Amino acid sequence: MKVIASSIRKGNIIERDDGQLYVVLSAESFHPGKGTPTTQIDMRRISDGVKTSDRYKTTEQVERAYVEDRNFEFLYNDAEGFHFMNQETFETLQVSKDVLGDQAVYLQEGMKVMLSVFNDVPVAIQLPQRVTFEVKETEPAMKGQTASSSYKPAILSNGARCMVPPHIQPGTRIVIQTEDGSYVERAKD
Prior knowledge:
Strand 2 and strand 3 form a beta hairpin. This protein has one helix at residues 97-100; strands at residues 2-4, 13-15, 21-30, 38-45, 51-57, 61-64, 68-78, 81-86, 92-95, 112-118, 121-126, 130-138, 152-156, 161-164, 173-177, 183-186. By secondary structure, the chain is an all-beta fold. The chain contains one helix and 16 strands. The protein has three domains: 2-64, SH3 type barrels (Roll), CATH 2.30.30; 68-126, CATH 2.40.50.140; 130-186, CATH 2.40.50.140. The strands form three sheets. It has a six-stranded antiparallel sheet with strand order 1-6-2-3-4-5, with no helix packed on it. Strands 9-8-7-10-11 form a five-stranded antiparallel sheet.
């Protein structure tokens, strides 16, 4: 299915002229004051994991591969990879670390995710936009620090690092944006 380059988003699967399938890691459109608007697409080849990037005119046609998006539940991970269960059929599917990339740290047992599957092979994952973690350790708040401008580093229960406002203490549950790992708010539970 041909689509214009500016409509390509992270997680989409595209087929290049070489016949290979690529998963989109990032897509950014540039609109200069003078000249033609372009879209820069960074992608990873599904067959061997080689990363590449292309620049298209925003109105150029790109071949988007048909992938099936299915709901899965994260079960566990081990040396072989990450294991997910299909919500309807209860079949389990193993996904390798390179498909998940840096999003693997945000997986929690029982989490509902969307896996993009092409020919029964998982090629991309879509996590919930926000997840909740507990702050394991952080620096104490400094006297005179203002809450609006300064953030301090914190280590979360999943081992990830995040910048949090000064009032956040160890043991506090916070909401994190999965796209970039940024602090959103204190958890309401």
